[in-house]
Every structure is written in C-alpha cells, then in structure tokens.
Amino acid sequence: MNTHNPAHNRRSEDMVVRIRRFVPADAPLLYEAVRESIAHVNRWMLWCRPDYSLADSLRFIEQDAAAWDNEVRHSFVIHDSLRGTFLGSVGLSAIDKLHQFANLGYWVRTRWTNRGVASAAVTLAAQFAFRELGMQRLELLVPVENVASLHVAKKVGAKHEGILRNRLLLHGKRHDAVLLSLIPQDLSDESHAEGPEALATRTDLSTAAAV
Known about the structure:
Layout: E1 8-11, E2 16-21, H1 27-41, H2 54-70, E3 74-80, E4 85-96, E5 101-108, H3 117-131, E6 137-143, H4 147-155, E7 159-170, E8 173-182, H5 189-194, H6 200-203
Parallel strand pairs: 5-6
Antiparallel strand pairs: 1-2, 2-3, 3-4, 4-5, 6-8, 7-8
Helix pairs in contact: 1-2
C-alpha cells in the first residue's frame, strides 16, 4: 500500500483537480485559503475561526504528518495542478480499521466553490479510502442546513441514510445532521476495473491520466 504521496486527478475545462498530502510549504497557502473562506466555512466547521492564524496552519500540518504516520487521519490538499492553486482540503478521519469505515469531510475555498471542485476531490478521496486503505464504508455527516455540502454528497453518489436529531453543536446551537454514506459499490463497476478515468461520469468532469 502506498500512502506516502497519493496523487490522483480529475480534469475540468480549465483546471486539473488533484489531491495530495500536506507538506510544510503548504502552511501559507492553507492560511490564505482559510482566511478567504472564514465567512462561509466557519458556520459549519469550528476550526475555521475568525482568529485563525498562520501558526494554526503550521500546527495542523505538523499534526497531520503524525496522523498519517499513525494511520489515524488522512488529510489532503485539493489543488489545481495546472496553476498550482490551493483549492481546499478533503480528509478521512475517525478511521475504524476493525469495521473498515471512516468519516469523510471537505471544504473548498470561497472563490472556487460551485465549479465541481468538491465533488471531484471527494470522489478521489473515496477512491483512496477504498483502494489503498481497504475501507468498506465512508460516512458523511452534514448539518441539514448546509445545502451546498449536501449537494456535493449526493452528486458523488452518497446515499441518504437518515437524519440524526441534535447531532451537532455549532456555535452554541444544536443542529440536526444528515447521515450519508459511500460504499465501494456506489462507485461504478468500471471505476474499479479501469482506474480513476472511469469516474469522470460520476463528477461530470473530463479526465487526465492518473499519476
């Protein structure tokens, strides 16, 4: 299993969306993207605070390296390999090796939302989880009011399993959350047989070769 430097990609008309591990040099890029996106990300992700600092980015990347080494979390940079633009992040957490499932979360910086970036990155992260980690289930827990994230989850084929009442506490307020899931069979049979290229139809993106 090669978990050191996963690099998969999807191509749209004007970008190639890829995911890879964080490296220390990403700290200022992460900081810039978070600062740009606080207004719309902070509502749903408490780590994206108004006082988010470069030190927070550095600390996250340092902790993420340890998490990869211990196989407890796998976070990825979402980026456009044509221009090197930092687009956001997608990650796998709460990994349960015994029952082979994990949580999947994602965010895209403000100026790159509504362009298919999140759905492409989620699909690639799911591929990594199923193929490289042997996961058999991914769970996506989304506040019922977070319409944009729900749209992404449904676009990639995640199945609605129910609403968990009072599941999340965000900024002192309780929120019901939608539980969705992905299993290997939710990705097309062709994707398993032919590799990442076959997933283009799941994200409405044309495809570049996998690296």
